[in-house]
User: Fold this.
Amino acid sequence: MSPTVDEVLSRIRARLDLEAETEHELLEEIRAHFEAALEDASERGLSEAEALAHVAERFGVEEVAEELQATHAGWGALEGIAAAALPVLLALLLRWTIFAPDGTAAGWQERLNRPALWAVALIALLFPLVHFPRRRYALVAWGIFWGLSVLVAVTQAVHW
Amino acid sequence: MRNLTIIETILRNRGQFFTEIREGNGLGEKMRAMLISSIAFFALYGAVMGSSHSFWQALSSAVKLPLLFLATLVVCAPTLYFFNLIFGSNQSLGQNVALMLSAITVTAVLLLSFAPVVLFFLLTTSHYQFFKLLNVGVFTISGIIGVVFLSHGMRIVSYGGKEGASARRNVVRLWILLYAFVGSQMAWTLRPFIGAPGLPFELFRQLGGNFYANIFASIGEILGFFVVR
Assistant:
């Protein structure tokens, strides 16, 4: 008896050990490929059962699963690390350019005349545009830290 | 970048990870990946800590924090290895170091996860003693979870040699105490990591006093009993 698309996908899923969200995205992508291939096969005159068997064989469940696991393993945590680390790093960059070396915000207005501040600030501003899957979280965190940094520099009101 | 992906393996597939360490499978690769990851995470957290004072303090702490953990590992590794050996373990020094590195990597990634929280307080408070105690708290939580991880790993890795298993468990517990003492003294020796406000940047501070007395003094100042100089 030929497998259904769902059965083939669950066989692949059983061999994966990735984050649930990543697994879901990958399996949906495979489903789309699988369905396109099925359509192709039935256009060539194969019955649905034959087409499924043919496509499942062509895809190679074990190979696909192994390849996906090898390619995507570990990247979920890495994205989390990037999402946590990048806003912190960029906020520190801003802090080092607008704060005095002793850590105070005294005389921050004079610093606005320095090209180095604008160069670093521009790099730090553009950097979050780099695309990675958890960039929305990183962007929001980055916005909060930058807002706080500027607010503290301009007014001591939020400083405990 | 590929080295950093080891974090997911350690955190999600720890059983398999420790089994591979027990079998000595890819030990060198794992140790290199853990070393690179933990250095990167400690460096970032160190930079956050030092940023409350100055750029140079941030840079200095970014270098000193990885050094603190790795130096503590180097100092404490032989003790764990030889005591385990006495009580019937068949693990090599490399396997012991790999286990300790896994604990350090877990501590490092947890510190990284706290970095946004610490940065938030860094931006919104200038209370030095509070910031110091906040960091002590963060290090305590991360360190405890790290050593719990080590203890779990030890159980899996030394599963093969059942003889002396209970004695080895006690060795690990005592070793964790030793690790905490050495670590805190190492931190005291390598200080400052935050940098006292009003004092100029200094790479190392003069020795004297100890870590625990300083923490009690900080708590005393926060509660309003006295002022720490």
